[in-house]
What we know:
The protein is an alpha+beta fold. It is built from 18 helices and 28 strands. Helices cover 28% and strands 23% of the residues. The strands form seven sheets. The protein has a seven-stranded mixed sheet with strand order 11-12-9-19-16-17-18, with helices on both faces. The radius of gyration is 27 Å and the shape is globular. The termini are far apart.
Amino acid sequence: xxxxxxxxxxAGSGHVNDISRRNFLRAxxxxxxxxxxxxxLPLGNGEAAQADTGTFxxxxxxxxxxxxxxxxxxxxxxxxxxxxTSIPMLIAEELEVDLKQVSLEHAPPNEKLYANPLIGVQATxxxxxxxxxxxxxxxxxxxxxxxxxxxxxxxxxxxxxxxxAEHGEVVHAATGxxxxxxxxASEAARMPVPENVTLKKPQEFKLIGTPxxxxxxxxxxxxxxxxxxxxxxPGVKIATLSQSPVFGGRVKSVEDTAAKAVRGVRQIxxxxxxxxxxxxxxxxxxxxxxALVIEWDDGPNAALTTExxxxxxxxxxxxxxxxxxxxxxxxxxxxxxxxxxxxxxxVPFLAHATMEPMNCTVxxxxxxxxxxxxxxxxxxAQAVAAEVAGLPLDQVVVHxxxxxxxxxxxxxxDGVARAxxxxxxxxxxxxxVWTREEDIQHDMYRPMFVDRLSAALDAKGRPxxxxxxxxxxSIIARWAPPAFKNGLDPDTxxxxxxxxxxxxxxxxxxxxxxxxxxxxxxxxxxxxSHNVFVTESxxxxxxxxxxxxxxxxxxxxxxxxxxxxxxxxLAAAKAGWGEKxxxxxxxxxxxxxVFASYLAQVAEVEVSKDGKIRVxxxxxxxxxxxxxxxxxxxxxIQSAIMFGITAALHGEITVKQGRVEQSNxxxxxxxxxxxxxxxxxxxxxxxxxxGGMGEAGTSAIVPAVANAIFxxxxxxxxxxxxxxxxxxxxx
Length: 731
């Protein structure tokens, strides 16, 4: 089981970077006489491996102790998505052990050893933890199993083919003798590493594909789980802060007499663009902050408004962009159109608003820095702390913890940098906690986008041309500059270029347009959260122009995408597509292939006479390849649907006089319990490699809701969030 207080692991712990692409797995004797199975995830940054020096340090490893306990050092982080259950299932499956025998340790920050193989850096995001771990972790388990079996056969002086592993023991079939893994660990460490191992076929799986209870559930329910905000090193003080209300602004003056008089306030820390109050506890820190009188120099973005930013994008999308995908002859197809359809779409800035607000605990000393945080990018957190503190990397120790909501926000390290800045002025450890208002008004936001689309239909209503040009921010250009190539951002265009439909003439352009003064970042389902809303809504418009049923229309274009066709057929059938509904109630559909998974949703939506929207029911069918843990898949889809409906009905960050207008959940609303729909999830069995699941449901639900509103009211939704006032019946 996972310990609720996972062991702390220090940076610079003596691991040596000695990674061979040709050898994923090596074994070495553990100091305590156990088996350490090293797991080398292939690097995504193209660095050459060092020569074999006889020492091997993994970027993730399995340790089998003499007591039979299997310890997995986890290079991914848990933020509610079930990673700390599903990934151990991969090892346990091939290792032939019960899931309860596998415990976890957080990996230390080390970009070389723990790089995510799909993105080349130490990160948890893009719905790719299972995708990245699928092959190498199963190889790790299978290799360990074979070495342990070989150790038992050697001790018994029998043919290894007569032995097999089961439930953490090796059994000799002919005699019934048994030995536990713990009893064999030392001998197994001295066995030669097999060059090739045979992985189980899907039909042989015992754990993978079966519902598994969350290993971290008990600790999260009883409160013993440790999140970043729970860190409390001895002597810690608590700080909260006020940052310039306008991005790019500065502190002009501070009157702090009243703040210093608050009982429990210890000091005021003034930075160039922020002021922090350090106190004995959060209550005192917040009272002290409220008592400050701060005069700000708003800087160059003081006049910024949402309307001006939207106008900038509308102008940007007029001009040609960089071609992201093209096929056929768009111009010729448009010239031969029986019907032409054109539309513009707009999506707003969105905040992450995680339940655990931004926080970081720092103890800065002359000879080192220690950090307690919950981060999706532990290596980056260590690096920025070292940079701000002016210390070598190996003098920064980072303790990672469970994350109380990430959604991409904790792929950023601005909160770590800010905490270290404050800690430079504090003697002893200090925990910096952002208030909810600070968290929302100083977020890094899902970008605003504007799309212009046009399509041509033939005489039968079939689309013969599809043209899409959209403008907005590129997160990749800032976050991973080498991945931004030839003016294209692979994340920003996902969901716009990889459509599942048979479209003979197809053209997509991207215009990079960065909003001044508004920092942008990844947000759950990132590029597809914008693109799938646009493409699936516009496909619905084409079906309406062709006077055809939206599901039948889509199915007619999916003969070359059988997995997409299967999920749409299943979702429509389970939702009762075509069955009569009451007035002002409609069904809407969407289908997509993003994050290497196929997913279709049907939303059933009621619109009252006064325009109030209620999503009554959502039916989802998914083909995500091999379903490692069906429980996790269902929970992920349910969560993503609620997150997406929140965005569709309520989500919008607006700016006035350079300031974010929303500050808490009264203005930046989330879906309430009484608004939550019934959700049904159907998983299609598959033997394909697993796809991502954490974000796919968010991108699919928004167009399904928008299309259902059209079916219910005849009103087409091309802008988010949905304005209820536009849907009211005239009196």
